[in-house]
Specification:
alpha/beta; four-stranded antiparallel β-sheet
Length: about 625
Amino acid sequence: MLRFSSLLDAFFFACLALGLECARVSGATFTETRNVIFHTVLRARIEDIGTLTIPDVIATICTITIPRVTTTITAVVESSTASPLDTIKSLLFYYVFYTYGIKAYRHVRARGLRRCMSETVKAVVKDTLLLFLALPPGRSKVQSELSQVRMEIEKKLVPEGTGVQRHLELPHQGQSLEWILKEMERMDEEFGSSNRGENEQHTKGVDWREGKISGTVYHGGMDLTRVIVAAFERYALANPLHPDVFPAIRKMEAEIVSICLRLFHNPDGAGTMTSGGTESIVMAVKTHRDWARAVKGITEPEMVVPLTAHAAFDKGAAYMGVKVHTIPVDPITRAVDMRRVRRAINSNTIMLVGSAVNFPDGNQDDIVALGQLASRYNIGLHVDCCLGSFVLPFLEASGLADGEADAEGKVRYRLEPFDFRVKGVTSISCDTHKYGFAPKGSSVIMYRDSSLRRYQYYVNPDWTGGVYASPSLSGSRPGSLIAGTWAAMQYIGSDGYLASCQSIVTCARKIANAITTSIPSLYVIGSPPSSVVAFASRDKDVDVYEVGDAMAKRGWHLNAITEPKGVHIACTKLTLTLADTFVEDLKACVEKARLAPEGKGTMVALYGLGSSSPVGPTLMGEVATIFLDTLYQA
């Protein structure tokens, strides 16, 4: 479908080309050329079609632009002595100039001139340094350092020693259940994994049951685990790709989506289950891309996301061929800069993104303001509530949504509107496997209506194997996960989720308040309304990454964040009894980081590398790639 704005682009390109061609063949001066272009093009160019009505545009074209274009055409025809080939070459040049000029203009408008210049300088410096590092002396040093990194990563992840057994080939004869369980137990003990039975003794390594972990394990208790395992056992062979064979799984999935839609105040909406938050987000990007192509004729899609949005949006954009405009956030509120969002919107924009709450620091964007922009420009708005999960929908009922007043009387931790009650919101992602306490590998992507959901589907009626249709990325999916998710939601119920919301959010705010009132070297980033608390250093003598590494030595496994440098903890049920311990350990680690920084911990080394030079992020990428390679080393 050809867009009205595309027709305008073509029309104004023709005006520009005619103006330039007229100036070329007539030998006009620079001033005369500028006047021709100004009168034929710039006064009628409509970059932001959303600011004018279609009747206004038509009136402008009929009364101003067409007469000027007619005059220009006459001048070109009467004065041109160039051959048709020269004219075609000129028009081709003008087309390329116009096309890339518009792209450059939109790019600079979205990012700002200063940021574009800074990015250009950094890119040039990075490429120059990478060129030098590619020369033999630099390449040898880099490879040597990366080899050392590889060895360290393998030492941490790949078990070694005479007692380590590797199963690299199928056994000639199948093993018994007793042997399999015993071998699993032995593999757990190779690195002291805490994946043991509830009555087994723990020997070494990470034990998530101690609760000193940020997010990662959203444990609803052993009773719930047994319920989920029972559901797994019953539907271990189920596959929702075949609803006629497994009708109960189809029904469970539909009911899970329906429950989530009602939690987010859109009972008449639509949605599907996915394998996790990343797939939910990728599906949202795919859906809005295909919708914009079919309805608005957009073939070069762009999306506008906050700096704090999840990396899955960049991943989805990379998969789906969508350009991303990343917008800074307010340093105090941590909400995306709405003025910059508005400047980034153009005729190729397919969607905006807002978080409720974001992963890095647990704050939320202004969803209401984003919704107003989305409605005004008829584009999508996706709200990432993967981490908000089953906490945010229960905050109002818990009495915690209004926040609390600090010592100065200012309200903090207030929850702002974020769900389908906000006009302009077109999709929301929610991870049931986080605070829904469902088994890992379950999430829900929701849409305002079923007509939008249709663009998520993949349908191939011409395949030689028969008609193929799937709702998301996967074809076959584990019905056991759907059954486990359904069982968890039925077992906990709304009262259970309300109670967990109250206890988890109260714990998070207790930690945040303690940092604010009793650790002057640190400050809480933003005003997080939910379960995540991020802190940074206001003391030049305290490196917050040193603090994070010191906390790791005390058994805490926290997340490092950037822009600003910080550390966060996502509170779960496991954290509830450890809030005081966390604060006391944090105080001690702040003093240790001030008086005796080591500079050798994982956070300091890795994130120090990333900010050490323009090539730092590239080297971090190499380290991450080595890490991923090591995951598949048997």
